[in-house]
Amino acid sequence: MRQLVRYTSHITEVALSRAQLALNVDDLDEAITFYSKLFGTAPAKVKPGYANFAVVDPPLKLVLIENPGHGGTLNHLGVEVETSQAVHAEIARLSDDGLFTEEEIGTTCCFATQDKVWVTGPSGEKWEVYTVLADSDTFGTDSTMLVDGDENAGTCCAGSSDDARSATA
């Protein structure tokens, strides 16, 4: 019999729904085939250059971003939460803890309208805490996948919204 283990976060104010792992892939079709077999599920969303899986066990949002020449690398990490209120609670908590945050409220990224906050880890890894407000027919405000030489190298939409640009200008 399989035993379920429940992990709890030290963050009591915000319910975390699942972790997100966004990977750069060279060939989207090949990656979809592989990850469908690995996790035993079909993608939840497939768009040009993009796919995501809502894996139930383990609870994971796996995002595949076609980024030729960067396959096998990390695009970004994230935590999907259930509400905008949870995103705003994380903005307050992270700011109170002295972390620089980049807020994107009502932004379109990865074929979804989202509220999110970005932070950068000590080794430069980008993390987002986000909620999906609605599906979108477009990739987002900036459809280019950022590449080496950019301060957000390899990150799909980090810092691409008008709000983020004006906050850093």
UniProtKB/TrEMBL annotation:
InterPro entries: ArsI/CadI-like, Cadmium-induced_rsp, Glyas_Bleomycin-R_OHBP_Dase, Glyas_Fos-R_dOase_dom, VOC_core. It holds the Pfam family Glyoxalase. It comes from the Bacteria. GO terms for biological process: response to cadmium ion. SUPFAM superfamilies: Glyoxalase/Bleomycin resistance protein/Dihydroxybiphenyl dioxygenase (SSF54593). Residues 17-132 form the VOC domain. Gene3D superfamilies: 2,3-Dihydroxybiphenyl 1,2-Dioxygenase, domain 1. NCBIfam families: ArsI_CadI_VOC (NF041414). This is Cadmium transporter. It comes from Mycolicibacterium doricum.
